[in-house]
Design brief:
The complex is a heterodimer.
Chain A (H helix, E strand, L loop, with lengths): L5 H4 L1 H19 L7 H20 L6 E3 L4 E3 L1 H24 L7 H20 L3 H19 L7 H31 L4 H7 L6 H18 L8 H8 L2 H7 L2 H17 L4 H24 L4 H18 L5 H30 L14 H4 L1 H15 L5 H15 L3 H26 L18 H19 L1 H16 L19
Antiparallel strand pairs in A: 1-2
Helix pairs in contact in A: 2-3, 2-5, 3-4, 3-5, 4-5, 4-11, 4-12, 4-15, 4-20, 4-21, 5-6, 5-12, 6-7, 7-9, 7-10, 9-12, 10-14, 11-15, 12-15, 13-14, 13-19, 14-15, 14-18, 14-19, 15-17, 15-18, 15-20, 15-21, 17-19, 18-19, 18-20
Chain B lengths: L1 H5 L4 H21 L3 H26 L2 H32 L13
Helix pairs in contact in B: 2-3, 3-4
Classes of the chains: A mainly alpha, B mainly alpha.
């Protein structure tokens, strides 16, 4: 008998869903002139509650609920807290930066919260049907958010590119699921892990895994599947990019960890070299392309591809150390990336009148606070000690070395050096004294409101905590890694698991 | 004659058809130059997967596969609603549906 009520297993998702529905309904019933900012505040409160609920899940026993379809464990809680944190920062950032007269502001907040539901559910799902639905909930919400500035030329273009390539990838993932179902007769992840090594149709399992990897690698924008990233990041509003570049990726990496380490540890010899190649490609392609970008958001889009590569390097690690390093990197990357996009939102403005690296010249003189924050986050992205970025790379590459992939770590280190070139270019531009002729009056200093201030504070605090006392976070990530390594042997799924021998 | 029709079609035929439909969808996605057609290619891929699910569900006598198909259809419908809305937004902004001309941002 399951001692924990099923509903508690998805408590954060329930809270987020109720918040999203409430925000959407209230938005529809409010008079047109009413300030929609309050809805954003309500969404932020709901997200904070969900974050608390995730932490609260630590206090009851780990296990599965709803007929073995969702799981709560240290692993899911780690990613729930991470995703809720990112969403909270993105909401706070939007509160101050969305123009008051922008259309459908209430829907904007509701969609962010609905996206969070999907991402949270994705990390907790242990049944491929739930994985698919969660992935689509998060994807469909983010497709709309990417095209939020629909009156510009690039807004709908970003949305359509994201939508088409995202659905294309989902179809691959789904075909992979179908083939795995065909080989094993089940879609429950523990059962698949149990049945896959002895499946009669082993070629179906291999093809299924390969297709699923294609779908997931699209979502994390790893190298051969990354083409959508720069365009989407450029066209989408900056607060949305702060979310897009971190939260769905963290969720997709959680899914990737689950698929390779929990579902197919038996196929290590297949996915390990594949991910090695993808990691090297992502780092190299991302960094080389980022070097020649003039638009800051495009540059950071390529940098996020490179960071996906550094994170994938952790997958070369053995079991626990690899999973823990990947989880830690996801957190470190999220903290610094959300932070830098918050700064960019404030500097470039919602309309993005100042999108180029040259526009950031002399930022530190225009706004000392934003300038130093920008440099701080860039330093973390480079991976300099006492920032989260350093320990993220450190753990990731040491996991790779521990797993015997010494060359991967060397290529990663070389790439980090290459990446420093373009990060420092932006940092130097921000620190440069502006020329006299375009005086400060030409570009007004951006205002930092209370909500944005809180968002920036959270991002800075997270980056510093991960850089100065990384052990606590790493321990949480390791606890998650252990739960992923030792799934419960028995799943009580009465009446749902009806797999039998196939007909002769 | 009657024995010919009473024979069951082998499972592999369905799977082959599904694979062919999926490949056609991929080819359409890569080749076609109209947004609506590209979108239809994705729907074709999803339905090819559905065929696979139904076939495997039959093979394993597992209801799970058929439930999966229902969910895929629901999600595909939701996706179509959003996708077509985005296509309309693109058309309003650019007055074209040609993939080649939606190139404000260069790759």
């Amino acid at each position: 008998m399951n001692p924990v009520p099923d509903i508690l297993r998805i408590l954060p998702e329930v809270i987020l869903t109720l918040t999203g529905v409430a925000v959407m309904l209230i938005d529809a019933s409010l008079p047109p002139g009413f300030p929609r900012r309050y809805l954003g505040m309500a969404a932020a409160v709901g997200t904070t509650l969900a974050l608390w609920a995730s932490v609260g899940q630590l206090y009851f026993p780990q296990g599965t609920g709803f007929f073995g379809t969702v799981e709560t464990s240290a692993f899911t809680i780690f990613f729930h807290v991470l995703i809720c944190g990112i969403v909270l920062v993105a909401l706070l950032l939007s509160l101050d930066t969305l123009p008051e007269d922008s259309h459908h502001q209430g829907e904007f907040y509701a969609l962010i919260v609905f996206g969070a539901v999907g991402m949270c559910l994705l990390t907790g799902a242990v049944e491929l049907l739930v994985v698919f639905i969660a992935l689509e909930i998060s994807s469909i919400s983010t497709y709309i958010l990417a095209g939020y500035r629909k009156n510009t030329g690039s807004g709908p273009e970003a949305a359509i590119k994201y939508f088409l390539l995202g659905s294309f990838a989902t179809a691959f993932l789904l075909y992979g699921v179908a083939l795995i179902f065909g080989a094993t007769g089940t879609t429950q992840i523990y059962e698949i892990a149990h049945l896959a090594p002895t499946a009669q149709n082993h070629s179906f399992v291999l093809a299924g895994l390969a297709l699923m990897l294609v779908g997931i690698l699209f979502k994390v924008s790893a190298a051969p599947f990354h083409v959508w990233t720069p365009d989407v990041y450029e066209g989408a509003p900056s607060p949305v990019v702060a979310l897009l570049s971190t939260a769905p990726k963290a969720a997709a990496f959680a899914l990737l960890l689950r698929v390779v380490y929990e579902m197919f540890p038996s196929l290590h010899s297949l996915w390990s070299p594949l991910l090695w190649i993808v990691a090297v490609l992502s780092m190299t392609v991302g960094n080389l392309a980022a070097l020649r970008q003039q638009n800051v958001k495009r540059m950071l889009a390529y940098s996020s591809i490179a960071h996906a590569g550094y994170l994938l390097a952790a997958f070369a690690g053995l079991g626990t150390s690899g999973i823990a390093a990947a989880s830690f990197y996801a957190a470190a990357y999220a903290a610094m990336n959300v932070g830098i996009f918050a700064v960019i939102t404030l500097v470039s403005g919602y309309d993005e009148k100042l999108p180029l690296i040259d526009d950031f010249r002399g930022l530190i003189y225009r706004s000392p606070l934003l300038g130093s924050l920008l440099i701080f986050f860039l330093v973390s992205l480079v991976g300099i000690p006492f920032t989260g970025g350093f320990f993220g790379k450190f753990y990731s590459f040491s996991a790779a070395v521990g797993g015997g992939a010494v060359w991967l770590a060397i290529i990663g280190l070389l790439n980090s050096g290459l990446a420093a070139a373009y990060y420092l270019r932006l940092a130097l531009a921000a620190a440069q004294r502006p020329e006299k002729k375009n005086a400060e009056a030409a570009i007004p200093a951006p205002q930092v409101g209370i909500a944005v201030g809180a968002a920036l504070l959270l991002a800075v605090a997270a980056t510093l905590v991960l850089g100065i006392v990384p052990n606590e976070v790493l321990r949480a990530a390791e606890a998650g890694a252990h739960t992923l390594q030792e799934p419960p042997a028995q799943v009580n799924a009465p009446g749902f698991s009806v797999a039998q021998e196939p007909k002769p | 004659m009657s024995s010919f029709f009473s024979q069951e079609i082998p499972i592999s035929w369905y799977l082959l058809l599904s694979a062919v439909l999926f490949s056609l969808g991929v080819a359409g996605f890569l080749i076609k130059r109209n947004l609506i057609t590209v979108f239809m290619s994705i729907e074709l891929m999803l339905n090819a997967v559905n065929l696979s699910f139904v076939t495997f569900a039959h093979q394993w006598h597992a209801v799970k596969g058929q439930i999966f198909v229902l969910f895929v259809m629901v999600v595909a419908a939701a996706e179509a609603a959003v996708g077509l809305a985005i296509i309309i937004a693109v058309f309003r902004a650019r007055a074209t549906l040609a993939v080649d001309r939606i190139d404000l941002m260069k790759l």
